[in-house]
Structures are given as structure tokens and as C-alpha cells.
Amino acid sequence: MRTFRSSASRLLLAGAAPFALLAGSAMAQTAPAAQDAPNVAADENQADIVVVGTAGAGTRRQDAAFAVTSLSSDAIARAAPNSTADLLRTIPGVSAESSGGQNGANIFVRGYPSGGDAQFVTFQLGGVPFFPPSTLSFLENSQLIRLDETVDRVEAVRGGTGSLFSNGQPGLTVNVQQREGGQTLKGFAKLSYTDYDEIRGDAWISGPISEDTTFMVGGYYAQGNGIRDPQFRAEKGGQITANIRHDFDGRGSLLIYGRYLNDHGQWLLPIPVNQDGSKISQYANFDHGTGALAGRDVRVTTNNAGRTVDLADGRGAKLGNLGLSFDYELVDGLSIRERASYMWGTANTIGLVPTDAPMSAAAMATTLGGAGSTVGSLTYASGGGAAAAGTQVMRAGIWDVRKRIDAFVNDMALEFKTGGNTLTGGFYLANYTTRDNWALGNDVLLTAEPNARRLNLTLGDGRIATRDGFTSGASFLVNGRYEGRDIAFYAVDELQITDKLRVDGGVRWQRHEVVGDVATSGAAFDQDGSAATLYDRTVQLGGASRIDYNASRWSWTAGANYDFTSQIGVFARYSRGNSFPQFDNLREGLTIISKVDTYEGGLKVSTPMLNLYATLFHNKFDGLATTQIINGVPNESVGGAKATGVELEGVIRPFAGFSIAAAGTYLDGTYRGFFSGNGTIDNTGNRVQRQPKWMWRVTPSYELTVGDFRPSIFATLQYTGDRFSDPENAQLLPNYYQLDAGVSVDVNQRLKLAVTGNNLTDELGLTEGNPRIIGSQGAGTILARPILGRSFRFSAAYSF
User: Fold this and answer.
1) First-to-last CA distance in the chain?
2) Do 350 and 310 meet the contact criterion of CB atoms below 8 Å apart?
3) Predicted pLDDT at 183
4) 3-state SS class at 38
5) What is the pTM of this model?
6) DSSP-assigned letter for residue 457
7) Contact, 451 vs 295, CB < 8 A?
């Protein structure tokens, strides 16, 4: 296998500061009272610097000519996200489905067509892509990073300049900025507990090492069964982060950091629900918000290949990460910036994946044995007792996906300033690998109930349909080794023409190379050769194939920003971005390069009483290539889409202590020249899957002082419009509302108590249908994935 040698440099993604911003965080500004208004403007000037979407040291949100949201640590706490991906619900233009648990999110951006996961979303730590491929099968970026109290803020840029910097992501780039130490010793500890018995501890400490050197170290540990309780410890793990910063007499600084994550949780998948048109209701006693198909009886199984699988291993990551950030002014007007990161570890997925909706045992006998087959006996695999004749049953696959990954990223830039002109040139290098071992399928026969039990079925003619509950062996296998390398050069020039007018433009050239050896499923066969046993039908690996791919593309952008006053401005931008095929596409022979043209313009208003950011955008997307595994066979979807939309974000502070933050998106996204089902289904004109036309959220909050206490009350009402789970628009996901709320009390300067509630009305809202079929599931009982049910988190925090 050909290997790539990494060169030594890397250019930062932070800011040569082009461009003035569009969607600054309304959420980040819910706390300040009107009486503190003068300080709000000061904070805007000093602390509200974004790094994402810029070429060097960062820029103020109000001075960025692209759509960006910045969420402070307080805003993150108030949002009370159930996962890293869940926080992205607060960002206009982004549709994030966190119903899959801590891991395995589906995230969609601005009408970009996608089959799932987070194909056009990149996560960064300190301005460096954490894992350069935004999505591989069973691995999206949010799986590799956790939010805890060591996070200072989260920034997210949509479209705009993203196609120039970092890994050239034209969709959504999310940057997680770490908390750092200062010249005062500080510390923080928080203990939280949920009504579903999760306990979690967070802590950090920071301070000086010397006059020029500071440190921070912290992290979290948590464990519990999860909201959907599978009767075993499904959620467990933690993270530790540490950094040291040294300043060079005002000319620059060096930040060195390390991070270790070892955390996993249950991979939550569709469950049975009832659907009658747009009306959704609970199936039998399967609670829509807390019910889990997994249970003690199915936790540990040994499949037909002899491999023992434990569902408690779930989906997550065990990773180490080392990185640095170096900034230095070489001479007046000339600075160098270097960002580097190395990450290594595993990101495995073990899950119970439903195959079909509940049915009678008699119907299952026909499904497994063919027309005319009847039930001879139906017994529990554990204990052997007979199951009732009216038992509803279903199948689910025990999917086992193992990934060993690593990535080295280096981004280096030189910035030259003279007069009103800032010129930045950079070099980006990423080298990354994955070792994949998959075994999909391995269906088991279960009772169609929460915490299901395995069943054994013998047909009326004596044929044995199951072994220890298993109705089949593997249906799709992968054994692959992949290595990718990206090399890019970029240049950005920003010119301040007048005090009010600033223009910028930039280009990026990127070369993408992939080599690999991969074997996938070969012929199906009967393990024992006997027609009397139906459970041992399986597939075997075929011969290995070689991947050797390379391609290069140019990306570019041009924008202008005009400030009417220091508080009101407008911007306009055009950008062209590209997304290269990654390992899984190339495994299936899909070499199409996605091309995205984005036109956008925005208004931004930033005053002590009001912040408002509005963006109008239009995308033209060509070249989506993705696969959907149906009955063990990959089905290709290829084509394009177009989208027009409006994003709004803002906060108003009408009087002291009270604020109302709001964000909303209107999106008209449709397919064009888009074919699914291996080219047999033309979806042109259909709505882009899983992305609603309307999304909005409103967050009022009120903070007051009562004696020595400072209580704060906040709530969020969110609306998600109707969507379709599939590109064929045959699986409707009806609209729903979600209400969250919380109360926090500063008992004194050191102690804070808080309680937050999610989905207080216990709404049944669907985020996914059945992605493993093509077409409608019909009326009645279907498979779908609802949002998580009502839950509460209680916490006590102490700081010094």
C-alpha cells in the first residue's frame, strides 16, 4: 500500500479577518441586563472574537462578512444540549437530529442534499480540523468531541469563507475554543444528576505558572443508563483536557494542548410507532420518549460467525489528541501562524438496528420461510418457555463496526499588513487513515416490546428458523484499510477602501489523494448446507480491490462589507466550494466531486438594546454521491439540488434583566437531476430530505436580584416543520414543537444551583423514518426515531 509522508507545516484557519458578520449569537447575549448595556458594547469589541472562517488571528462578529454564530459557555449551559450535535439546533440554517443519542447524529446544512450523518459538517478544536473527513460511514465529527466546562465558546460558520480555510468545508464549520488560564488562580467544580439516573462531574482549574506562562486542566466523567433505559449501563466515560500558554513579550504566543476522550453511549435507532397520515401516536406500551428496544436478554450475543458482541459497548470514541497553536510577529506588519494537531484512537459502533416493523408471529413465519409457512413453535431463547400465540415480533440486526483512526493536520500562514491592506497566504496539509472492520446484518428475532427478548421459531414443516434468536448471519461485510492526504494552498486579501467599505477575496487550490485496499461482501451461502436450517444464511468477504484516487480543484470567494455606522452594517458574498469523495464513496466506485455555489447577503445590527442578524442565501449544489445499504446491498444516490433561504437571529433587551432571543430559518430546498435507487428513481422537484421549510426558536429569559440571591429563569420554544425522511418524499415526518426551560440561582459569588428540563410537554416528534428501505412504510405501525422524552437535570456548581 502506498503511504504518504506528512510534511511539517500547517496553516491556521483563524483570521486574516476579512468580512463582517452576519449571524452572531443571539443565545450568547441572553444574559446581559439592559442596565449593563454599556458593557455589552465593550464586550463586543474585546471578547467577542471569532476564529472560525477567518485566515489568521480572528475578527469581531460584527466585522465578519459571512454567517457565523458564536455561543459562549453560559449560552451553552442554558441550551442544555443532550449531545454535541444537539447544540447545533441553536444555529440558523442547520437541522440537527440528536435523537440518536450522544453519538450518531444527522446534521444538515442550508439545503445541501445528504443521505445522513453529517456529510458537510466539520468540527475543529482551536481552529484545527479534528478529523478532516467530515463524515465516513458510522463516523461523523461530533462523535469525536464532547462539550464540557473546559469549553470557552463554540463558533459556527455557514457557507461564506469556509471553502477557503481549514479542510475547505463549504457547508458548516464548527470551532470549539478551549478555556485557558490567566494570571489569577481559578477553579470550578460541578455535580449534576438527572431524573433518569445519570450522574456527572465536571471540573477545571487554571492559573499562572510564571509571569508569561499559564495553564488550564479539566474535564468530566459521567455514567448512567440513558433516557432510553436498556437495563444496563449504556452511557459511560469522560474526557480530560489540558493546555499551557506562553506569551513572548507581546509579540506572540505558543499554546500547547492535550486531550483524552474515552466515552460511549447507546446508539439510539428507530422504534415502533403508529402513523395515520400526519398523526403520530405511541405503539402499544412502547413509550415514545423513553422506550428502548435493547434489554438485558439481547445485550450479549454470539453471532453465527462466533463473535461475541456486547451492546453496552455502544457508539463512541477512545481518542488521544495533541496540538499546538503558535503566533508570532516576525517584524512589524509580518506575522506567522502555525496550527498543528495529531489525533489517534478508535471510534466503534455497536448497535441494535431494527429490520422490520412489528408483525404477528404467523406473518414472520411467512417472511422467513416463504408463502404457506406456519408457526410450529415459538419459544424464548433464554429459558425456553413458550411465547403466547398472539405475541407481536420483529427483527433487528446486531451491527458491529470497528474503526481505528488517526489524523495529522498542519496549517501554517503568513500575514502581511500595510496600510489598509491585509494579505494572508497559507499552506494546509492533512494526512489521515482508518482501518475498518464491519459486520452488518446478524438479525435476531425479538418480542416487539421495550427491552425485547430473543425468540426461537420453528416452522410448521419442521424447518428451524433461528439459532439462539438469530435468523441470519452477516448481510454486509467490509474489511478495509484507507489512507487519505489533502494538500492545499490558499491566499486571501482584504482591503479597507474607506472607513465604511471593506472588500476581500481569496482562492484555494486543493489536491485530494486516497489509497486503500478493501474487501466487501462476496457470494451468499448456507453455512451448514442444510435446507432444514434457515438461520445460517450469510455472506462472506469477496476479493480485495485497490483504491488509488487523486484529484484537485480550485475554490474561491469574494465579499464586501459596508458599515453605515459602527452598529449597523451589510455584506454580500459569492463563494465556490468543493467536497471530495471520501473512503466509503470510493469503495463503491463513486468518484464524483461535489460543487457548491453560494450567493449570500446580510444585515447586522448591534446595539445595547438590540442585536439582529439576517441573511439571505441561495445555493446551487451539484455532485452528491452517497449510498444506502438496503437488505445488505449498497444503493447509490447521485445528483444535485438548489436551495434559497433566509436566516434570522437576534436578541432584544426591552428592560433591565429581561431579554428575548430568537432564531429562525426559512428554506426552500429541492432536488434537481437527483436519482436514487441506483439511478432508477428521479427525485427532481422533491424536497431535500430531512430539512424543513420552517424552523424557529424563541428564548425569553429574566434575571433579577432577590436579597443576596440572583435567580434567572429561561425557556425555549422550538418549532420544526414537516419534512420527509427520504429523497423520494414517501416517508413524512410531521411538524412538532419542543419546550425546554430552566432556573438557575447564584446563591453567592461562588455557589450556583440550577435545574433544566428538556421536552417538558413530552412531545412525540419524529426525526427519522426507516432509512433502510426505499418508499413508504404505509399506514399503521412503522419504524421511526422520535426525539428524546421529558427529562430534568439538577446541578450544583462551585467556583473560586
Assistant:
1) 54
2) yes
3) 95
4) helix
5) 0.90
6) E
7) yes
pLDDT of residue 9: 31
Of 27, 237, 14, 12, nearest to 145 by C-alpha is 237
DSSP character string of 95-149: EEE-TT-SS--EEEETT---SSTTTTEEEEETTEESSSSSEETTEEGGGG----T
Residue pair 266/294 in contact (Cβ under 8 Å)? The answer is yes
What nine digits make up the cell of 472? 441470519
Burial class (CB in 10 A: 0-12, 13-18, 19+), 154: buried
CA distance 715 to 69: 20
Distances in whole angstroms, Cα of residue 476 to Cα of each of 28, 216, 692: 45, 46, 32
Residues lower than pLDDT 50 in the chain: 1-47
Tens of pLDDT along 433-488? 999 999 999 999 999 999 999 999 999 999 999 999 999 999 999 999 999 999 99
Rounded (5°) CA angle 380-382-388: 20
Please check whether residue 436 is in contact with residue 402, taking contact to mean a CB–CB distance below 8 angstroms.
yes
Q: What is the pLDDT at residue 202?
A: 98
pLDDT in tens, 281-328: 999 999 999 999 999 999 999 999 999 999 999 999 999 999 999 999
Q: Where are the domains of the chain?
A: 50-697
- Listed residue (96, 36, 32, 28) closest to 62, CA to CA: 28
Are residues 121 and 172 in contact, defined by beta-carbon separation less than 8 angstroms?
yes
Set of cell numbers at residue 597: 455555489
Nearest to 728 by CA among 686, 666, 694: 686
How big is the chain by its Cα radius of gyration, in Å?
26
Name the grid cell of 603: 444585515
Task: Give domain 50-697's CATH superfamily.
Answer: TonB-dependent receptor, beta-barrel domain (2.40.170.20)
Q: Pick from 289, 231, 269: which is nearest to 101 by CA?
A: 269
Q: Are 206 and 186 in contact (CB under 8 A)?
A: yes
Residue among 87, 79, 91, 89 at smallest CA distance from 25: 91
